[in-house]
Amino acid sequence: MTRALIVIDLQNDFCPGGALAVTGGDEIVAGVNAQMDRAGAVILTQDWHPAGHSSFASQHPGRAPYETVQMDYGAQVLWPDHCVQSSQGAAFHDGLVTDRADLILRKGFRAGIDSYSAFFENDQTTPTGLEGYLRSRGLTALDFTGLATDFCVAWSALDAARLGFDVRVILDLCRGIDLDGSMARALEEVRAAGVELV
Ligand code: VGL
Ligand code: ZN
Questions:
Q1: CA gap 82, 19 in Å, rounded
Q2: What local confidence, expressed as pLDDT, does residue 2 receive?
Q3: I need a surface site. Which of 93, 115, 177, 188 has the fewest CB within 10 A?
């Protein structure tokens, strides 16, 4: 069966030296590239925020990165400024083979709402369009890789499972942030949703 490889946010800001560095984020690049050769389709996502995005702690006086605030759409973790549109931090890791991508999907581009998932923004109702793209191409089996396991990868895999896709997360090709136990929680939720962890 053709499986689509979805590479989540393998961008400089999530790699060591970046604004929101995920430990070992750069270690997965070679393996992700190799996985592209076995994939029936390759989709890259790119976290793509306007300057002054509402998920940035810098926009919330008195708040610090990694605190949680209540937004009109629910709880939101505040992050250091990261993946600002057209910045070097928002660029893909230099080693990532981007030529193989059929689609590059940008998310988080609306100032007032974050988008962890590649399918829905954080209100969990505004679609990114990815579901329609996959369905119209007949891509029903998805392998997720990328950063960060416990945020954008997990939220994407959960939405994909809810939408009825056949979903796997390739854990060796993911790295996480692990904020207050978020890694264990995310893996448990993903597993409970019927996602295969490989
Ligand atoms: C991500 C936090 C903020 C991610 C993106 O890619 O997991 N995490 N923006
Ligand atoms: Zn972001």
A1: 6
A2: 83
A3: 188
- Sort residue 188 into left (φ over 0), alpha (ψ -120 to 50) or beta: alpha
Cα 189–chain centre separation? 16
Does pTM top 0.90 for this prediction?
yes
pLDDT tens by residue, 29-73: 999 999 999 999 999 999 999 999 999 999 999 999 999 999 999
Distance between CA 156 and CA 119 in Å, rounded?
A: 6
Distance 108 CA to ligand 2 centre (A): 6
Residues with CB under 6 A from ligand 1: 9, 14, 47, 79, 116, 147-148, 151-152
The alpha carbon torsion through 31, 100, 39, 192 (nearest 10 deg) reads 70
